[in-house]
Every structure is written in C-alpha cells, then in structure tokens.
Amino acid sequence: xxxxxxxxxxxxxxxxxxxxxxxxxxxxxxxxxxxxxxxxxxxxxxxxxxxxxxxxxxxxxxxxxxxxxxxxxxxxxxxxxxxxxxxxxxxxxxxxxxxxxxxxxxxxxxxxxxxxxxxxxxxxxxxxxxxxxxxxxxxxxxxxxxxxxxxxxxxxxxxxxxxxxxxxxxxxxxxxxxxxxxxxxxxxxxxxxxxxxxxx
Length: 200
Fold this sequence. Notes:
The chain has 200 residues and is mainly alpha-helical.
C-alpha cells in the first residue's frame, strides 16, 4: 500500500499528465510548438507542485502514524516536534534534493539519501539528486522568465533547448519512482525506529 501522501501525489499527477497529453492531442491540431511549450511548462510545474505537496503531506503522515497520546511523556515531546515541523513546512518552498532531504531528516529523522535511486533507469543516488535539482532549475527558469537551462533531457532531437513530450514523460516517471522509494523508505524508518506496524 501507499501512504496517504503518495495517494494524494498520484491524484495530483494525473492533472499534470492531462496537460502533457493535451499538447499532443491530434484533435487540437494544428498546435504550434510555442503553444505546446505552454502545456509542457505547465505540466512540469504541476509535477513539481505535486512533489512539493507530497513531501509536506508525508511529514504530516509521519506525525499521524507515530502519535501515541496514551504515553504522556512521549506525547508531550511528539507535540512539540510536530509544532516545529509545521513551522519548517511553512518555510519549505523549493523541494530540491538538499532542501527535501534536510526537511525530512530534521522533521522525521528519516534521511532518504540512500533510498533515492532509480534502478529501472540505472540512476544511482547522485544521478537522482542531480536530476531532481535539474527539474527544479527548469521550473525556476520559466517561472521567472529565463531561458531553459541546457540539460540532456531538455534538448530536442533538433538540438534546440526546449521541453518535449518525451521530457515530460521522463519527469512523470522520475517523480513516480521518487515517491515510491521515499514512501517505502519512510515506512521502513517508522517501523524500525518506533516499532510501529505501518498500514501503508
């Protein structure tokens, strides 16, 4: 099973997938490359927003699962930690690899760095962290009116730097994997640290 945060992510990612599919919908032909870019940019921004929401929701899931009001001493410390986590979540606005890792480690004690790999695409931890940061840089660039940075996945077959349907599909698959491995890692962390049977 998946955490409530992961379920929420999948629902939000469907909206991003709709944007990506609209850009190549033959019923909307003719559609210019510039118009398609609007859909691709929107889809990428929606995937990033869904990832951001997932991390926020996962921290809250952690506190929901580890709560134990029957133990007054633990409950008092847990309540303080939850309050500090809520303050940190309010300041969390750039879900790149460093910020996300720090947030999870500081708020929950879970360090995801060892779990952030993508076996299906032969990407080790460093490659996954770099890709996450690249995606955030691309989102930042068009959100602030800058040119898209040149990365392998932002280069069209013609050599032009722009987003493509394939690039957005890669972003979708990347985040699906990242959510899956983070979810599993958090579940193992809770079970191993708190001896709690997590139902997701």
